[in-house]
Here is the input.
Amino acid sequence: MPEATSNVDGGDGIGDDPDGIGDDPGDDGSGNDSGGNDDGNGVRIDLISGARMEGLTGMEKIRLILDGVRDGNIVILEEGLSPDEESKLIEVTMTEINPDEFSGIEIETYPKSDAGDQTLLDRLMGRESAQKLTVIGPANQLQTLHKDETLISALVSRK
Amino acid sequence: MGLLTNLKDSISKVSDRLFADEEPKRIGIYGPPNAGKTTLANRIARDWTGDAVGPESHVPHETRRARRKEGVEIERNGRTVTIDIVDTPGVTTKVDYKEFLDHDMEKDDAVRRSREATEGVAEAMHWLREDVDGVIYVLDSTTDPFTQVNTMLIGIIESQDLPVLILANKTDLPESNIQRVANAFPQHETIPLSALEGDNMDEVYDKIAEYFG
Ligand SMILES: Nc1nc2c(ncn2[C@@H]2O[C@H](COP(=O)(O)OP(=O)(O)OP(=O)(O)O)[C@@H](O)[C@H]2O)c(=O)[nH]1
Ligand SMILES: [Mg+2]
Here is the structure.
């Protein structure tokens, strides 16, 4: 497990995440490329496309999400996670919760509208036909105000 | 995960289930914290084996280690169905030890409780992917069933093709709303009960035998 404090102090941009988001040396050149928003000026939002996620393994996806969230970012996934990945996300989140430091995640997706439109082969192969927009953030910064089948309304606060 | 690994996994899971008929089925009792999972597990265990599974409490995350009661023999219509029941910690995506401070707990105890809770939930999630043959999903029918945790867990259970029985618990309370639970998961059967009072347990046992026998 990565140390909980790995990214909040240095701002050196040398992370251990394989994704290249946030600490890509070429991404802005402004000097604030630590992947966090520890300058206190705002809350960063990463919108991650389905195409970007497609090339990653389940574990890489989970690291990408949790590294971002632990830096205080809001992560929005265009296509969400498979049930199996969601299950692993909960499991890994649990192992990283740490008193006074990380109290877990808030996650919201639209419910799958119809589980019945999947073929048996899809299910055997673990393929998910339903792709759903998913919002994930630190539990102490993201609060869901309202949720129904067509609208998710959330409040984001700075730490 | 690779396509092939996935396929292999699915096939071995399916065949496990086909050929493991002689073994008692492992039935996981899942659901959000405080829904009444342990109260139900204790009632089932007491009704059929004479002793209990674990302590119940109004403080969330009372169950922090999954507890198993093996070889519970349930008799229905002259037939005996043998199951292992596994009472799991309430599933959540966040645990803040400060919540426990409101329940009159010292910080040390609250921190320990939250650490145990997170370990227990991680373990329960792992088991759900690897080690469970069926699920009893317990909901507190006085609260909104339309939560992210419920949506995700039911999705996870469905994706593994596990048989699942949804129980709308705490029907003895005036705020209980069984229809709201049924509406939230229309693709599954919802059985109302009061695990505390023992109301409607006959139907619960009928359904357990039907689904997991
Ligand atoms: N009124 C009423 N209360 C119930 C019922 N079932 C459980 N309770 C109460 O709800 C509280 C939680 O019950 P538990 O069985 O400990 O709940 P749990 O789901 O195991 O909770 P965790 O282990 O914390 O996830 C306790 O105070 C129980 O007495 C019921 O049918 N009716
Ligand atoms: Mg319990």
